[in-house]
Structure formats: structure tokens, C-alpha cells
Write the C-alpha cells for this entry.
Amino acid sequence: MMQKMGWAMKIIAKILLKFVFYKFGGGVKVRLLRVIARHVGKNVAFGAYAQITHKENLSIGDSSGIPIRAWFDATGGISIGCNVMIGHETMIFSANHGFNKSGPLTGLDSICKEVIIHDNCWIGARCIILPGVEIAEGVILGAGSVVAKSLTEKNSIYAGNPAIFKKNR
């Protein structure tokens, strides 16, 4: 029902989110996010101090959550499946700055690529996930891992910088 509300409700929700989104967790944040985000499932949890840019490009499935002090840049889109656990202070980026081989680095266009995390994954604390990454169903990602390429092996464990396959679950 809240997804179908008009533009005025979306503006009000954005203003309210400015005041409550970063400091508080819980149900108020979830209800406000449902007005703006692409999709917010049932039984979704949001931790305090989580920061999400371009919330309209975020999709999060049932029984998943965004942890305390997370940083999600959803410029290019972030899609999180159902039953996904994400550890504290994880960063997910769906956009990066473009650059030329020479010349100034300012004023260049962003390169946007959606990040997709499939169902039943566990992302350890303080992981960094870069644009265009797809994480297969059932993957466990070790704490502190940096993911620059897709993790394609289902029901597997990856860890490290860069994240590499360790073993099947």
C-alpha cells in the first residue's frame, strides 16, 4: 500500500529519513524506507547509523537486514535477496568514478553497475563489495574481505583481499 503513495508522501518520507535514518534503527526506518526503496520485504532489520545513498535503487528481501554503521551506495542499484545476514560496518558500492589515462580526475562521469547478493548469504563484518559484483546463493564471505569480482560458486566460502574461493560448505 505504501509503495503506491503519491509524490508528496515520498517527499515527506525523504525529509523524515534525514532526521531518523542514521541514528536510529527499527520499525520507523523500515516503514519510511518502504515508501522510497524499490522493494523492502517482510521482517527486515535496519541498524543504527546505517547510511544508504539513492535509496530508491535499493531492493532487500524478506528476513534480511542492513547492519549498524553500514555504508551502501545504491546509485547503480543494490539487490539483496532473502535471508541474507550482513555484518557490521560493511560497505557496498554500486558506482565508481570514471577516469582517463591522463588529464584531470575531477568532473568525470560515474560508472554504475548493480550489486546483487542472492538468497541465504552471510557477509562478514567490514567487508567491501565493489560495483558489478554478483554473489551466488548460499555464499559465506569472511570478515574483512574485499570483493571486486563476482563470487559464482553456490554454497561456498570466500575470504581475503581480494576474496578468493576457500572451500564448499
Q: What stands out?
A: The chain has a mean pLDDT of 87. The chain has one domain: 39-168.
